[in-house]
Amino acid sequence: MSPPVADLAAFRTLVARRRTAALFDAALLRATQRTIADVRRRGDVAVLANVRRFDRRGATAADLWVDTRALRAAARRCPRELRSALDRSYEAIDAFHRKQRPRRIAHRGRSFSEVLVPRPIARVGGCVPRGTVGYPSTALMIGVPARLAGVDDLILASPMPADGEIDPALAYAAVKVGAQGLYRAGGAAAVAALAYGTRTVAAVDKIAGPGNAYTTAAKWLVSADVGIDALQGPSELVVIASKDADPASIVLDLEAQAEHGGRPFAALLSDDDGLLAVVGAVVAGLGHTGQAGRIALFRAPTLAAAVDAAAFAAPEHLHLAGARAARLAGRTRNAGAVFIGTRTAVAFGDYVAGSNHCLPTGGTARWASPLRVEDFVRWTTHVTAGRSIAAAARAGAVIAEHEGMRFHAASMELRG
Questions:
Q1: Which pLDDT score, from 0 to 100, does residue 289 have?
Q2: At what angle do helices 68-75 and 168-176 cross, to 10 degrees?
Q3: Of the candidates 85, 84, 144, which has an alpha carbon nearest to the alpha carbon of residue 356?
Q4: Which is it for the CA torsion 393, 398, 399, 404, positive or negative?
Q5: Which of 79, 211, 282, 352 has the fewest CB neighbours in a 10 Å radius?
Q6: How many CB atoms lie within 10 A of CB 231?
Q7: Which residues in 378-393 are b (16+ Cβ under 10 Å) and which e?
Q8: Which helix (H) or strand (E) holds 15?
Q9: Cβ(294)–Cβ(258) under 8 Å?
Q10: Could you tell me the CA-to-CA distances from 260 to 137, 239, 393 in Å, in that order?
């Protein structure tokens, strides 16, 4: 049976319900808070308990940390073809992100000169998810912009495999980006360890990277004490397709999104009944019937209305499939990444396009952005008074006096 086709009102309702449940489920937050508190109290002991519960029953404390020497040894076991593919991915990511490196901004006025100076964040933790295997692609997505920013210490955290072995592909990517080590834990425990430190791993200044719902909740909860890049939880895709789009490629994109772990969301919005029917039939044949959190189909009165609905959803990925849909790229907003045209598979952005696949989810693309070099930079303003500041000092004093700040006023007038 094909997935039912609903209207855009139903799409908006589903998005709103999912957005609330994805980030603020009370039970999930309580469990995450307990884990964070436990790690803050017991450190590696608490992390190891989580690793034994979720990843590897026989894990020991010594298994938690992989240093650079062990990473290099494991990296040599990465298959040649995979190494070559990761090299190509690295080069594409580096080429695009190299253009993003921030530059100091200077201004000289009549009374003052100001310079906004970029400085790299000293120590960063990168969350690298794991499915049946590790995700070396995410290590590259975090590590390349961090390296370009000039980060001194990059620590990667990724769940320990069930067999306890060091993943050669992940090790290769970690060595490639110059990581100082790999902390083999995931979820809320890993985030807490990075945020507050343990005997094995020192606290970082900022945490970047995606993860499951517990990782996302933990990043949100620790964000008062450590910087975070964005909330990157269960993966999302909205496809807007015109009649001329290729149904087979749409199905593959939707299915690719649905194979993510957690609660992935994949939706097709189209103004063409025939396209919706064909895609729905193929999806049904592959075993997906539009169940919650998987693949859903929606009829839009116009493609422009579909673009407006996508802006409300603010999805992680937005794909404009078909020539008519692609022409609306300039009208899109509120998406982590927009993939334009049928040939531009969303999966290219995950691996070899050069764009970053660490993207905001849960509607946070309304204000958040893809991971980029600037996420690993902090800015400091340098201000220098010139020779002629009397008029500026008097103006500043007038404002300060109005606000009841008499010592502010006095300090400026003394210099004037």
A1: 47
A2: 120
A3: 144
A4: positive
A5: 79
A6: 21
A7: eeeeeeeeeeebeebb
A8: helix 8-24
A9: yes
A10: 14, 16, 59
pLDDT at 1: 59
DSSP letters of 180-222?
Answer: SEEE---HHHHHHHHHH--SSSPPPSEEE----HHHHHHHHHH
Task: Give the CA distances from residue 236 to residues 31, 121, 205, 206, in Å, rounded to whole numbers and listed in that order.
Answer: 24, 29, 28, 24
User: Which strand (E) or helix (H) includes residue 26?
Assistant: helix 26-42
Instruction: Please report how the helices 213-222 and 8-24 are oriented relative to each other, as an axis angle in degrees rounded to 10.
Output: 60
Looking at the DSSP bridge assignments, the partners of residue 113 are 108, 384
- The Cα 83–Cα 89 span in angstroms is 10
Q: Which two tokens stand for residue 254?
A: 């939707």
pTM of the complete model: 0.94
Quickly count: other Cβ atoms within 10 Å of residue 303's Cβ. Answer: 23
Q: Which two tokens stand for residue 89?
A: 């991915």
Question: Catalytic site residues?
Answer: 316-317
Series of mean pLDDT values for 10-residue runs along the chain (416 residues): 85 84 78 98 98 97 98 98 98 98 96 97 97 93 98 98 96 98 97 98 97 92 96 89 96 88 85 96 72 77 97 97 97 96 96 97 93 98 96 97 98 94
- Please give the single-letter amino acid code of residue 115: V
Asked whether the beta carbons of 212 and 31 are under 8 A apart, the reply is no
Q: Is 416 helix (H, G, I), strand (E, B) or coil?
A: coil
184: its two tokens:
């083999």
Which SS3 state, helix, strand or coil, does residue 291 take? coil
- Phi–psi pair at 43, nearest 5 degrees: 60, -130
Structure token pair of residue 67: 């240093």
Max Cα separation, the chain?
Answer: 81
Per residue in 314-325, is it b (16+ CB within 10 Å) or e — as a string? bbbbbbbbbebb
